[in-house]
Amino acid sequence: MRLKGKVAIVTGAAQGIGAATALKFAREGAVVAACDLNAEAVKSVVGACRELGAEAAGLAVDMANRQAVRDMVAKVLQQFGRVDVLVNNAGITRDARLQKMTQEQFDDVIDVNLRGVFHATQAVVDCMIEQQAGVILNASSVVGIYGNYGQTNYAASKFGVIGFTKTWSRELGPKGIRVNAVAPGFIDTPILATVPDEVIEKMRGQVPLRRLGRPDEIANIYAFLASDEASYINGAVIEASGGMTL
Length: 246
Known about the structure:
Blueprint: E1 7-11, H1 16-27, E2 31-36, H2 39-51, E3 56-60, H3 66-80, E4 85-88, H4 103-131, E5 134-139, H5 142-146, H6 152-172, E6 177-184, H7 197-205, H8 215-226, E7 237-240
Helix pairs in contact: 1-2, 1-8, 3-4, 4-6
């Protein structure tokens, strides 16, 4: 069990990559604090973690609400005494072309995908500095590296997350804290449920492996990066896209 005894906060844990990460961490022996705006779905994930033998707690939180995020971290510290890993996975999309994008669409995505990462990391960093150890893992995207049609807001947020990762790895590395990012490509998650079949097929066609990624494949990367096996990886952005950007 590569994460045995480590206390891990996973945001956006109700479904998709976040849920898969919570379950993977549970299998690897972590204490899991699963956080999401969807309280009912989080309960299900927590139950699944406990069935795997892990200690787990579910917390409802709006990542765009700075005080709510700080309260969430305080509850985790009160219950478990420490935070060893933070997985900043929570994210949303509000797609539109530049000319059509509203300020509300832009702000919603920035508030969750970028400010939410800032809020959560600021809330845990003092604890990690005191411990002289910790791992912060940020969810970027290939869209944050290469851009994507109709995703001005999302691309900006995910590019910003890479900036966070590079900066924090420099600031926090000397304090024993590693900071890395994962940039997934097309992953088969509930967010694709409304995408037409012909578009999904086009997406598959852009990937040399000719398939979408699975949430558990991204969760495996997070588990490795959170573990001591990745002890010399800091400031990295690991692309997991099946080669779609080649």
